[in-house]
Amino acid sequence: MSDMVITLAHFCDKHGPRALLGTQCAEDGDALLLPDYPTEAFCASCSMHFPGGDTCTRSMRTRLNSMDYVSTNYPAIRYQLLSTVIRHMFSEETMTYDCAPLTFFDQSKGLNLVMGFKLPDADARGDERRYAILLTIDSRDQVASMEILSKHWEFITNSFKRVIDHIKQKRETEVRRNAKNYSGQFTPMVGTYLKGNKSKVPQNLVQLTHDDLLFVRLHKWNTFMLHQLNSLE
What we know:
Layout: E1 4-12, E2 16-26, E3 59-64, E4 67-72, H1 79-91, E5 98-106, E6 110-120, E7 128-137, H2 142-151, H3 153-182, H4 188-197, H5 205-209, H6 214-232
Antiparallel strand pairs: 1-2, 1-7, 2-4, 3-4, 5-6, 6-7
Helix pairs in contact: 3-6
Pfam family, one: Folliculin
GO biological process, one term: cellular response to amino acid stimulus
Protein name: LADA_0A06018g1_1
């Protein structure tokens, strides 16, 4: 089942639909790595971040049972497929942001299971940032793909929900922390004035959740899910 990929996607205010982190598996993980790509096309809100701030650290790899599980901001093999899927789900599908699962299939995009969610952020358009986590089965065999999805529906959706709940809880904690730190520093009138006139600052999930290890955790979660799906199959 190396034709499967789990992706965390974001609708960036500046760059539109983007993959934040895509996790794939293969017997040879080197084939999934792209050591260099145009990072100027990514801003803070649509980039991943690993601890230490090393811009050269663009991927993580875990080896389990002769398979390499690789997470990267720019999934080399399936980047074009995922870009098409992500643009489609944000722009054309009636995706909600309440973690309700959505599925869609065609011959070019394969079978996709998507769960959308949003996070509050005063620096984003509309004071919120929109995200989605999705499983893509890169196959033209709709019947076989649907069998996989239906057989493991509870495992996949519950796993996605746990990931989303963790991210949302971290964001809620950070919002409360910021509110406590800034309470009483501005009058309501001055605070409103500054908020309405300041420049929008892109922030990635590490900043929004105050969790420097968030993308490491996402890699581990995605690896666990793909490994379990491989084992169950």
